[in-house]
Amino acid sequence: MIDPARFELIRRKHGAYASWAVWAPSSGPPKSNMGDLGVLSEHLNPSLLETLNPGVVMVGLNVAARSLATEPFRNFHDPSPVANDFKIRFAFEGSQFWGAYMTDVIKDHPETQSKRLLVHLKAHPEEIPPHIERLRAELHDLGCARPVILAFGQAVYRLLKKHLGVHEYSRLIPLTHYSHRISKENYQKAVLAQI
Fold it and tell me: Of 4, 18, 67, 106, which has the fewest Cβ atoms less than 10 A away?
């Protein structure tokens, strides 16, 4: 659960690249309703704030270019037919991780090919610490001193393991990335087993 003032702070300061693990239910095809942001409005969804869990933070590498939008909380709610965000919805629906906070390590470098970004970061390691500091500030604003962090992919896990102190999280868990070529059912089994 999160209080209204903190929710509004997160929306205002971090809504351009962050979101919450809450989605509208599928109405048929697996990717249906992924872009419905009404579920992340406390006015349209009165039980939203009770559902949110700032004690769990799901972290991706960076925002995809197509996810950049003026709407808060669009990240991880990509309506594009090529996006794989729907696997996250399927994997965590009905679990204790539904309602987790979601963000990326690298905020201002949209790229759909993570390998390109990782090559860039390897060539420019000085760019990493400011992103880690922004993540720390974001976690501070979230108000949970030692969240469980679920890292989407080994690259994210290694970055966080290297740059965050063990006192900054209660658990840091690497998860298979949702873009992995795997069915949504097998993805669900894989990530729940990893947790």
Answer: 4
Phi and psi at residue 82, to the nearest 5°: -95, -5
Per-residue model confidence (pLDDT) at position 82: 81
pTM over 0.85: yes
Residue corresponding to tokens 């469980």: 148
CATH placement of domain 4-194: 3.40.470
Kindly list the domain boundaries of the chain, sorted by start residue: 4-194
Inter-residue contact 132 to 163 (CB < 8 Å): yes
How far apart are alpha carbons 186 and 134 in whole angstroms? 33
CB 174 within 8 A of CB 180: no
> Which amino acid does the sequence have at 194?
Q
The alpha carbons of the chain give a radius of gyration, in whole angstroms, of 16
CB count in 10 Å sphere of residue 56: 24
